[in-house]
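Notes, p. 3: input format for complexes.
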Amino acid sequence: MTVTIKTPEEQNQMRIAGRLAADVLDMIGEHVVPGVTTGELDRICHEYITNVQQAIPAPLNYRGFPKSVCTSVNHVVCHGIPGEKTLKSGDAINIDVTVIKNGFHGDTSRMYFVGKPGIQAERLAAVAYEGMWLGINELGPGKYLGDVGEAIQTFVEGKHFSVVREYCGHGIGRVFHEDPQVLHYGHRGAGMELREGMTLTVEPMVNAGKRHVKLLNDGWTVVTKDHSLSAQWEHTVLITADGFEVLTLGADAREC
Ligand code: MF3
Ligand code: CO
Ligand code: CO
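Output follows (256 residues plus cobalt (II) ion):
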């Protein structure tokens, strides 16, 4: 395990990268409408990241991933590959954006509804969102990763949904996925103790049915085994002296 502690200067670079990633999600919202393809959403994000932000879309060519963002629709859990799929009213889509700016990564995702959301999809997204925030609110120096996992798992399972085990949050910095692994289930007091200067993601995947997942033949797309709906939200967070700072808040949630 090699966990990196970011210096104040590195923390500033992480703030910059995190803000850019959030700006992409703010930008793309109005384009998520019936009739658009996931490939078009990818292209719009790619152009914005490269031309407007002068940044790099981290997923592109990452371990062979062919596109610039991940688009995960309905029963797709994560790592959906943008392409010909046309969105229709009632679909729910997670768009996951990671940008690299000055060598530092910012990683964040949100759920969007196409047209009018289905009642179950709306409930599931709300539970995943609240679960993510309950996990984030556990963060701080002297706290344990298990505190985050237990908070999320207890809440989600209490709503009779399930937490995906095979994919997790992660340390982040100059490296996209670095130590530690941030599990979205577990036991209070277990796992690594957190320290000021760590940066990591919290990104629970929540299924309406059972927790089990299956990897498709494209080598990337992860779906629920029982084809139930899945939802995910993600923030990149800095551990501060007195708690945490969320680096990927949207403009509406920022002070400046
Ligand atoms: N952004 C994802 C995460 O939250 C990782 C995507 S890897 C990719 O960690 F290659 F699929 F893009
Ligand atoms: Co991530
Ligand atoms: Co991500």
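The chain has one domain: 8-254.
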